[in-house]
Amino acid sequence: MKIFLATILFSLLYFSSLTAQWVYVTPPEMFYGGNYVINHDGELYFANNEDIWKTSDEGNSWTNLTNGFVTEAGNSNLFIQFAGSNIFVASTLLAVFMSPDNGSSWQLDTVGLEGSYNASLLYCDGTNIFASMNYPTYGLYMKAASQGAWTRVNSNSIGSSYLTNVMGMTKIGNVLYAATRSSGFYESSDNGVTWTQKASTNYPNPVEGQVSNRLTYIGSDLFVACTDGVYKSTDQGDSWTRVDQGFAVWNQFNVVQIWCLYSDGTNLYASVAQDDSAYISTDAGATWSDISGGLHHRLKSFAVNNGKLFAAQWDTDSSFVRYDGALYVEKEEGINPQQFELSQNYPNPFNPSTKIKFSVPSNSFVSLKIYDALSREVAELVNEELSQGEYSVDFDAEGLAGGVYFYQLKTKSYIETKKMILLK
């Protein structure tokens, strides 16, 4: 019986590893959880509780930029921001550091900051950099994104208290937007010097959470993350509507606490406080797909690099993870097919990537999965509601062994499978 149970357990673990879409990438040698990841000029920068690391090859090798200088063990790096060759790092205890030479040297950057060095946000709009400081003194500060003293923003009480503490910032065109914890939504048309509070009907409360900027956008639509869901505004923050659907509930409090909300300009990504839960929306929050496969802990930060999604995972040890599912399902404009159809992938044979096209005649929930020669699922490329149209999706087989694979399109009323060959 023990042998039988052990065999069953091994099989479950084996098959779960085959279907996992998130995979661990070789992380820096460290303890404590991963806090933040950001893409800058094709390189990924990763923060844990001790150091800032850089990788130019998607995590296969790493360079330690700080070697313990910026922070101390147990002190979390919250944000990394860039302005030209300057790198800024915000910390929970030691305020802000900057490097004027791409990480070769570092210096404290606290001149002008008053009292509290507990940062809740660091944001750069390309011209100015902003630091939102938390308990006990609070304050929103700004300066040109270079060396020099910080200036406190004194406009409409923004950032000056617990309720008005700025938890998210973004910029659309020439207008800056700021999301406060519980006192509404603000905008600035003069580079952040003066701020006006918006009407903010149905503004979520409170807008707070773990390490991430709580505010982002796609096109002209704004999105904010709070302790219970994702909210969207289509009128520059005057009114808000909740758009998360079916997210995992954090059972301890019976809420959907968003840990990270991120946009790559096309898609929205969200992670929640419930362990191993993450989602993607390809239609500005109208619908969401679960991309939690392979996760074991919470994600605190996302970044897209070379068309691939990476994340900082809060684990017993710091974790840098990569999503191996498809991020982009492209729809051909002006094509209205009358029947389901699955085309042969191209190129075929391929190494390591290929494109798969399919047609959808009417609104349908569509699944597109990849299987190996033993009928084991190795990837899920599509798992969402799609409207009528012709679609294409890229499949990257990097990390898979060469051989015969099958891809299957499945809906409520249609199923078709085709063969493809991976040459390695």
Characteristic key phrases:
globular, disordered N terminus, 36 strands, Immunoglobulin-like, 424 residues, 4-stranded antiparallel sheet, mainly beta, 4% helix, single chain, Methylamine Dehydrogenase, Chain H, 2 domains
Per DSSP E runs of 2 or more residues, the count of β-strands stands at 36
Rg computed from alpha carbons, rounded to a whole number of angstroms = 23 Å
Report the mean per-residue pLDDT as an integer.
86
What's the number of structural domains? 2
Secondary structure category: mainly beta
**Per CATH, what is the topology of the largest domain?**
Methylamine Dehydrogenase, Chain H
**Percent helix among the residues?**
under 10%
Under CATH at level 1, the class of the largest domain stands as Mainly Beta
What share of the residues does DSSP label as strand, in percent? 35-45%
Shape: globular
CATH architecture of the largest domain: 7 Propeller
Number of helices: 1
**Biggest sheet descriptor:** 4 strands, antiparallel
Spatial order of the strands forming the largest sheet? 1-28-27-26
N- to C-terminal distance: 41 Å
CATH-level-4 superfamily name of the largest domain: YVTN repeat-like/Quinoprotein amine dehydrogenase
Low-confidence stretches: 1-20
